[in-house]
Amino acid sequence: MKLPYFFFGTLMDQDVLERVLGRAPGPLSTAAVLHGYSRVRVDREPYPALVTAPGHRVAGLLLRDYSAEDDRRIRYFEDFDFAIEQTEVETEAGSETAHFCGAVSNITPMDEPWSYEEWVRTDKERFLRVTDIYMKGYGTLDAEAADRLWLDTVAELFGD
Predict the structure, then answer these.
(1) What is the pLDDT of residues 68-119, one digit of tens each?
(2) Domains of the chain by range and CATH?
(3) Which InterPro entries match (predicted)?
(4) Has this prediction a pTM greater than 0.90?
(5) How far is CA 56 from the centre of its chain?
(6) Is residue 112 classed exposed, middle or buried when 0-12, 13-18 and 19+ CB atoms within 10 A define those classes?
């Protein structure tokens, strides 16, 4: 049985997830909580990261219905700065194991909370454009070229 994905940031948004998957994802209806972490802003990036924070919790959503191709597309979208890890999350039905985008490299988490609601108001439209441009490289760009595309597009649309 494949593990669900726990999304805690931009991939909680249906529009972003649709662009990443290249198809309508269906509802992300299972609310889940990850204990022992905080969701924080990332320096010069429009997405959050998780940092270890005993006593804290992060609310998110689970994606259960995905194909092998969806999995590859999610990993392309996340894998250059995040490692796909496993963790335990809490749902109404109890504890379960899920994938999440954990360990970070090449980014600087800040000591500042990231808010999904604020992101929707201030950054979502530009982020959708970044996602559209970036996902056009899926299946054609190597890791270095994809990373450069992301950085250049974010700098252009969000400023340096």
Answers:
(1) 999 999 999 987 667 888 999 999 999 999 999 876 767 888 999 999 999 9
(2) 5-158 (3.10.490.10)
(3) AIG2-like (IPR045038), AIG2-like_dom (IPR009288), GGCT-like (IPR013024), GGCT-like_sf (IPR036568)
(4) yes
(5) 19
(6) exposed
The stretch 131-146 carries a mean pLDDT of 95
Q: Specify the residue for token string 């000591």.
A: 111
Q: Describe the crossing of helices 68-78 and 124-135 by its angle, rounded to 10 degrees.
A: 110
Q: Distance (Å, rounded) from C-alpha 5 to C-alpha 16?
A: 15
Which tokens sit at 55? 């006593």
